[in-house]
């Protein structure tokens, strides 16, 4: 993955944590778990997109 994608994923995880703890007032541990799941989902999705893009590029070029 590109470094910018990791940074974007970490920012998204941090925002998820802050939104969960500050706005929805859930337990911090629950917010950490949800933020980690969101980052993992983002990570797998970004890697899948890059795999499809590289496959498509090899197919046509």
What does this structure look like?
With 61 residues, this protein is mainly α. It is built from two helices and no strands. Helix 1 packs antiparallel against helix 2. The chain starts with a helix and ends with a helix.
Write the layout of secondary structure elements.
Blueprint: H1 3-23, H2 28-60
Helix pairs in contact: 1-2
| Strand content bin | under 5%
Radius of gyration: 15 Å
Distance between the termini: 21 Å
| Average of the residue pLDDT scores | 87
Largest sheet, if any?
none
Principal-axes geometry comes out as elongated
What percent of the residues sit in helical stretches (DSSP H or I)? over 70%
Structural class of the helix and strand makeup?
A: mainly alpha
SSE sequence, one letter per element: HH
- Total number of strands: 0
Q: Can you count the helices?
A: 2
Keywords:
single chain; 61 residues; mainly alpha; 2 helices; 89% helix; elongated
Quick take:
The protein is mainly alpha-helical and 61 residues long. The protein contains two helices and no strands.
